[in-house]
Amino acid sequence: MYSTHYLGRQPIVDARENLVGYELLFRSSPVNAAHVVDDFAATATVIRHAFVDLGVAEVLGDRLGYINVDEQLLMSDLINVLPHDTVVLEILETVRATPALLVRLAELRQRGFRMAMDDLVSLTSDKRALLDYVDVVKIDLSQVELSALPALMQALEGFRGSLLAEKVDNPEQFETCREFGFKLFQGYFFAHPTVIHSRQVRPKVSVLLRLLGLILSDAETDALEEAFKSAPDIALMLLRLTSTAVMADKSAVTSIRQAILLLGRDKIKRWTLLLMFATATPQGDKVRHNPLLELAAMRGRIMERLAQSLRPEAPQLAEQAFMVGILSLVDALMLRPKTELIPQLPVDQIIKDAVLDGRHILGEWLKVTVSLEDENTVQPAGYDAELLTRIETESLDWVKRMWA
Question: Where does the record place the EAL domain (predicted)?
Fold first, then answer.
């Protein structure tokens, strides 16, 4: 049910060796090496790990992220899940400059995407055609001798973007490229790639398919909200995405519904597709639900029903209560401390306070909810035992129905 995700990250520096970005690299294990069989699937995995599992704030901070893209991903609608102000699309050397591709690159540039040409060794007709669309040209020093740089620089005369020397392994290469006017640098001379990892719950493909089906059938927002509520792991991903997607409204999220509306159906559809590509396993979808997910959904539903029963005049409080319920188990679901995870989520402060410190009425209701899980725990005074029993039974039925 759990899987460990790995992501390679190598610094990119300027001529003064100041950090300006990272290239994000596919890794399938703690071993700092790539074994890529499918470029599209590898990039889908990188995107998921960087923007969903780990979070863009942890992976990039305020730096740019260079992500390898092949022709299939460039032409795909999935490219639109990426925030154009955070990433640089690094066009792989295998991409051919067809008329359709050049039209696509022009569209992406118009939307604000920056692009880089990967592994330039010689200026072929394909590479020359791409020059008008890229902001950065990466020259691979493991394949280009320093003595060959003058001729290559002459061929690139007129290119108005920045040159990046990659595979820089020694001071001589760095100084020579700097003298030739290179602005960006990457290689072992500065830093080896590091591997960062997180251990996450793997979402069921069947749940993703159900969610995708609801979106494609133009289901009501209520139905989408229920689908997310039945899958707390995917709901947590939704919250992460609202903090990384390019949106005009950066306000704190107070409910699952608001996160859906902020992100938008189109982006949810694209992310769902990408998650399916990155989640596929040889075992297919034979993984059983993690009991923690059921418990998180149960807590969320009990919290929601408590709010609806005790404060019916405040519907927003019920939405916040559900989020407090599922986030109360975020440390167990993500195997990282709440104090590390909760501050990164774009949720309202009252939700954070309730989860972390048990404050406000939401924090009190969370204690009541947790007390229902252990028959030996004394329930807080002032709550109708019959009401709590009814809410607990209704919530259990709801969880079973949602996962039937």
Answer: 1-207
